[in-house]
Design brief:
alpha+beta
Length: 148
């Protein structure tokens, strides 16, 4: 939920919250009359969480907190740097590669769509149409996709 792509954890969490919301709604429906207003707090929490996930708030917050660390590392990446399994900000980087005028980091393993996702830092150029695996995210940052 706080990485690019849709992970299996996001699906499990969504199913959990959905089951909780349905159960809570059923309990409230049986005899909501006479119950305290605080009984609606869990339902509001479920709806609030769904809203935050829908607008990608966890992903954007995690990236914002990690951006300076990722950028500092991206500027120092060398061709022979393996960069494997190290924490950069709040992301565990599985792989790093030096690319023309930038660097890219793999931060997820296989997701529900059979792809891996990461970030690419490309400050001096815009990736061309033949580089379809990059999607602009923010400033010099791109979401990097690898897989079918």
């Amino acid at each position: 939920m706080s990485t690019p792509g849709l992970s299996y954890w996001a699906l499990l969490l969504a199913l959990y919250w959905l089951a909780l919301a349905i159960t809570w709604s059923a309990l409230l429906g049986e005899g909501a009359r006479g119950r305290a207003p605080w009984m609606f707090v869990p339902l509001v929490l479920v709806l609030g969480t769904v809203l935050l996930v829908t607008v990608d708030a966890p992903f954007r917050a995690r990236f914002a907190l990690s951006e300076s660390s990722l950028e500092r590392y991206a500027r120092s990446v060398r061709d022979d740097d393996d960069g494997r399994d190290r924490w950069r900000g709040l992301y565990r980087v599985n792989r790093v590669e030096k690319i023309p005028r930038g660097a890219r980091f793999m931060v997820t393993s296989l997701t529900m769509d059979w792809r891996s996702y990461g970030f690419a830092y490309i400050p001096d150029r815009v990736p061309g149409p033949d580089e379809a695996w990059y999607e602009h995210f923010k400033g010099p940052w791109y979401i990097w996709t690898e897989g079918p």
